[in-house]
Amino acid sequence: MHEQQHIAYFTATILEWKHLLRPDKYKELIIDSLRFLVEQKRVKVYAFVIMPNHLHLLWKMEAPYKREDVQRDFMKYTAQQIKYDLIKNHPQVMERFRVNATDRQYQFWERNPLSIYCYSVAVTEQKLNYIHQNPIQDKWQLAPLPEAYFYSSARFYQDNKDDFGFLTHYLD
User: Fold this and answer.
1) How many domains, in total, are found in the chain?
2) Looking at per-residue confidence, does 1 or 33 come out higher?
3) DSSP per residue, 99-137
4) Using CA atoms, how far apart are residues 120 and 122, in angstroms rounded to an integer?
5) Boundaries of domain holding 17
6) Hey, CA dihedral for 108, 135, 168, 163, is it positive or negative?
7) For a Cys staple, 148 with which of 71, 74, 118, 143, CB 3.0–4.6 Å?
């Protein structure tokens, strides 16, 4: 539990890097889930970006919640909500996520997301910069500036504007 007092850098990727998170409704679902976790005092969220096929977070678990439990619940809940929407509105897309597994018929997130603790301010700031630069990379070109990409915490750090109502500054 001692390491849980540190901010964790978390990356979750959609199965086979498919662009499932391109529609804003799925980004909003992730935002709502993060807001819920903050409101329930399970996590503090310091930074995030939601890309078309993956997401990055800087977050810290609140005692007594364990990192692996919160991550599992977050990924399971968001996958279930996406599945419900696909069944209702896009059944043809569901087939792209069919898997040959003993424990599931469909899979949306890759297994074993990356989660590492940031043991210094320098590492936290390096991860924060990486997260905010993600949408403006040449391969994405989702925005001209980090703060212009809506589904990111960059504006919070640039303009002190929390459009989501759940962000905490990493130095707080």
Assistant:
1) 1
2) 33
3) ---SS-SB--BPSS-EEEEE-SHHHHHHHHHHHHHGGGS
4) 5
5) 2-159
6) negative
7) 143
Type of residue at 143:
A
Q: Give the span between the Cα atoms of 170 and 39, in whole angstroms.
A: 18
Q: Which residues contact 15 (CB under 8 A, 6 or more apart)?
A: 97, 99, 107, 108, 109, 110
Alpha carbon distance 90, 140 (integer Å): 25
Task: Give the global pTM.
Answer: 0.95
In a domain, 33, yes or no: yes
pLDDT tens string 54-69: 999 999 999 999 999 9
The residues with which 118 forms a beta bridge, in sequence order, are: 7
Q: Is the pLDDT of residue 134 over 70?
A: yes
Q: Report yes or no: 92 and 55 within 8 Å, Cβ to Cβ.
A: no
